[in-house]
Design a protein that fits this description.
This protein has helices at residues 36-51, 69-72, 74-82, 99-116, 121-138, 149-161, and strands at residues 2-4, 10-17, 24-30, 61-65, 85-89. With 164 residues, the protein is of the alpha+beta class. A three-stranded antiparallel beta sheet has the order 1-2-3, sandwiched between helices. Strands 4-5 form a two-stranded parallel sheet. It is globular, with a radius of gyration of 16 Å. The chain starts with a strand and ends with a helix. The mean pLDDT is 91.
């Protein structure tokens, strides 16, 4: 996601979403380009945010990304595999093939960037933790019965713990 600030600066944000509950697990933001090192940090942080301090995900999980050089870099691909991820990419010039990410970007721009503004890169980057936290805790999703990602997961965890 590329956000233009009012003063002309640009902030590039890469994020990871859990496709089951739509939680934004982690993100990185920069005023420069997104590197393979940054994507690898994003992978590791996403895994740890979901599963805790583990060396590998408990079951293989698909890591879907676009075809940007930072995502298809062999070091990034190998690192993902070492974490138990199954890296795969969307078809070229086919953003609709990753509809969940596209919907997230649309929601994020509409509900957060347009509301809070982006006067400059520093202000925007300082606001991102709040924005992502609010999205995860409070943003209702039609596909989650109008619950936020974390509300949905808490409900699922309660239901799974119920013996009846």
């Amino acid at each position: 996601m590329d956000i233009g600030c009012d003063n002309g600066e640009r902030v590039r944000i890469a994020f990871s979403l859990d496709c089951c509950d739509r939680e934004a697990l982690s993100y990185i933001a920069t005023t420069g380009g997104i590197s393979g090192d940054m994507v690898r940090d994003l992978m590791l942080q996403s895994m740890q945010n979901r599963f805790g301090e583990v060396d590998k995900v408990p079951v293989p999980i698909q890591w879907l990304s676009d075809n940007g050089s930072a995502y298809i870099d062999s070091d990034t691909w190998d690192f993902g595999v070492s974490l138990g991820l199954k890296p795969c990419t969307t078809p070229y010039r086919s953003p609709e093939s990753n509809g969940m990410a596209e919907a997230f970007v649309k929601t994020f721009r509409r509900d957060y960037i347009s509301v809070h503004g982006a006067p400059d890169a520093v202000t925007l980057m300082r606001s991102l933790p709040f924005m992502f936290e609010d999205y995860n805790e409070n943003a209702p999703h039609k596909g989650l019965r109008m619950l936020s990602p974390r509300q949905f997961r808490r409900l699922q965890n309660k239901l799974e713990g119920c013996p009846v």
